[in-house]
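A common beginner's mistake is to predict each chain separately and then try to dock the pieces by hand. The better habit, illustrated here, is to supply every component at once so that their relative placement is modeled jointly.
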Amino acid sequence: QDTDTIYNLEVDYNAPVIYEVAALKVEGVKHLDKEVIKQLLRISVGDKLQVPGDDISLGIKRLYRQGLFSDIKLIADKVVGNQIYLTLEVEERPQLTTINFTGIKSSEEKKLIEKTALSKGGYFTANLKNRIKLIVQNYYKEKGFNNVGVTFEQTPDPDIPNAVGLKINIDKNKVVKVRDIIITGNDNLSDHKLIKAMKKTKEKNWRYFFRSKKFSEKEFKNDRVLLIEKYNEFGYRDAKIESYKIEEVEKNRINIHLDIDEGNRYYFNDIQWVGNTVYSSDFLTRVLKISKGDIYNKKLLDDRISNDDDAVSNLYFDNGYLFSRMIPKEIVKGKDSIDLEISVIEGQQATINKVIITGNDRTHEHVIRRELWVYPGDLFSKTKIIRSIRELANLGLFDPEQLQPDIQPDPENGTADIVIPVVEKPSDQIELSGGYGGGTVIASVGLKFSNFSIRNIFNKEAWQPLPTGDGQTLSLRIQSNGKYYSQYSFSFIEPWFGGKKPNSFSVGGYMSNQTRLSSSYAVSSVNPGEDQQFRVWGASIGLGRRLNWPDNYFTLSNSLSFQRYELENWGGFYQFTNGSSNLLSLSTTLARRSIDNPIYTRSGSDFSIGLQFTPPYSLFNDTDYSALDDGHQDKFRWVEFHKWTFKGKIYTPLSRDRKLVLYTGTEYGFLGYYDKDKRSPFEGYSVGGDGMSGYTAYGSDVIGVRGYENNSLTPIGEDGRRTTGNLYGKMTMELRYPLSLEQSATIYVLGFAEAGNSWYDFEDFQPFNMYRSAGVGVRIFLPMFGLLGIDWGYGFDDVPNQPGASGAQFHFILGQQF
Amino acid sequence: CGEYQEIKKSTNAEFKLKKAIEYFNSQDYAKTLDLLDDVRPLYRGRTQAPTIEYYYAYSLYEQKRYLDAGNYFNQIVRLYPKSPYVEECLYMKAFCYYKGTPMVLLDQTPTKDAIQAFETYIKRYPNSSRNDDAKEYISKLYDKLVKKSYLNAKSYYDREYYDSAIIALNNSIKEYPESGYREEILFMLLESRYQLAKNSIPSKKRDRYNKAKEEYLSFAEEFPDSKYVSKAKRMNNNINEYLGTE
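With all components supplied together, the output reads:
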């Protein structure tokens, strides 16, 4: 043996030495591969190695991270000169090949596997069982299961050496529920108010019938904080929970005792602003809307300073003062007064430098950028950012709940970059439906692509799976009952025609053909068996533009449309049985739309007023239409009318979390004529029922009034036959509450009160004589299928001559109608 | 198909692995992926692990799942740094990222990742014969970023938001001084300045025309033979006319 060989290497941590690795042995390996282990250690023969050093500690750490070993040691066998001989001693862990849970639901199993990060091929570590037990118990504690039993069974895997399967038996035991909550010391706030403030801890009481009474330690802790916050809202600034006790009254049933010290009620006294140069103190106090003598309320103060839409700090944030801050200081004065001293740090005004859009993997960038109200060079404005987000949400292409702008300030240059991350969501819709209408079963197939790109039809790269990305809408629809009714339609909308201004361009066409009526609709005046046909076809083209006055929520749209009706032996519905009719009209609509989200709208409004008219042929030709027969061709060869429409919808959030929403809507329509003897046989209103246009898609507007049968509120005309109304009115109030706002499904329930009616002529119009109804319903919005809904309505008023048209009615809703 | 179901049902990992590689060789990559998914976890830490990952990544690549493939190549580099595949995998990672980059009109974060991946490769293997290709790919990727920045700035110019256009155009030039759109950008800057001056209130006109003049001079100096030269000269005449009259 060489004299310079050292067997027991002493490591001096203050004086590391560099050796050359002469040998590296791996010991203790049963199933794994020595070379792979050496690779993971990243030390090989010939390397220069510092002892002690980072390479060694990092290598060992890396090996541990693999989870393959229960013990790892790197030993220096000997040192010869600057040559070091190493041995890596490892102890392998058994591999875990199968995991089974018993005693729980498969959905819970999925969650638990996720939480415990178990997967086949993992390794069995010493701590594994303890860790699983803790995770399982914590998981169930949150759900109110307080004594969950967890046991393990471990069996060797017959197929693979050194591998085990693990069976985890879970016994959930019973949920612990709260029986009574006994509160003492609350002289000023009622028990109910306090229990209401606690979100998840409820007692057994009819008031909380729908709420869970499960007891969870964690939720109770949160709820105690909420309870004190409730006191703070009422001016009890010093309120605290003196003590609380959880008492088991029988197995799995507890009572909670809470003893509260309310303290004094405080009031706001003087309010002072410090450091403000841009706005005067008086002005700021006016915007704050808190004055001397008001009951102290911490939450209100925070909301008024920063959270509300019209909060004081937004004065600054909307005027470029991105770096501004407001710090309120509360000074207690006497025993129940609070002086407020609000320091304002204004900082400099910031302008926007870059507007960066990320995450768009389908929608083209300019389609997003053009909807934004933030521009490079403009002063920073919080309101404009919020408006931009709202416009993007309204495109329907992105998940609105995930549109969170990121502001990246650069104080040195006095600028800020605005990053807008979008998350694309599926926006195409397929509608496959079968429905019963007009006495027959009708099937329809509809496709709606909301992010079409027509110029990319020949660009393979943009097909995913259709040419996508330009934000154009293409809809195609086919309806048929297989035998004697079919309808085809298409429409295309380009929202930014020309790309410079938000001027929309739309074009559409349709054709429907019916050769016979269902027997239940047959009218005695038509001989069955005779050749019958009712054909409608038409096309329209439209242009719309955004206005800047009165404000930039307004749009004005115009469209030109042509429609042709061809009737053959088609009696009983219109003024003529044989012949054709042409309809050429121009419509113009002025609308103001400011809703926050098209699917579950929480706030905003949508108003529109429209006029559609045909040329007044009767004013220019000298025909005396009163002398012509009812069915004379001249009366309807070119149809003439003017049609007025008003619609208004307002959405008001009622609850603080903005989930409960009140929808108020009102609409009126009027179909007028130029010559009373040349009235339009088409374009009137068919009122009552679900509002779905079914298969009488052309010829009349279908207006829903729930709680009544379809078309039951349309008046009987002069000739005693059923005809369409020329005037209608409708009012709706709806309370909506969402059950799910997930991207995968938006679901909400609603309760409604509605009233509507239609009249034959203007003279008959009685705005307060309406058919009333009320009911409940549910709506489900699925990204692929659009809106589905069912309503139950009760019509309160009898419809003359139509027993059974009112009372309890079910309505099915497809597509956005209400 | 029946044979495949038999293989899939087998609990013999070695057999499955063998068959997976056979499927790979006969270019049935979907089946390779499916079988490898079953055996991968069982081979963790064993001799075959890097090879399995290697086949897995290439199957993804052949299936045109470039982003996934790139990430798997990356994983081989990270986990098995001494394996013989490392250099190839590091290059393939970058190449997959390159193949997976989206159209210019979409978010270009993957393009930036791809550039970085090629740069890492070149830095680590400065003498590699693949470097000429890598450099060419980098320049193609870089062109995408340049074009994106140009189109973004141009969108403000097209919509006649000249204030914003000036900022965005300047940012684009600052970020990509070698931009292939330099001529267009300088011309749009001139026109934006000019339009802004033309449409401003009298008190600001002079100052803004002066700025437009500056823009004209730098444009004319850099691109004396530009296809926009007649338009630029017309603007310059109007600028001079205004500046001369006061």
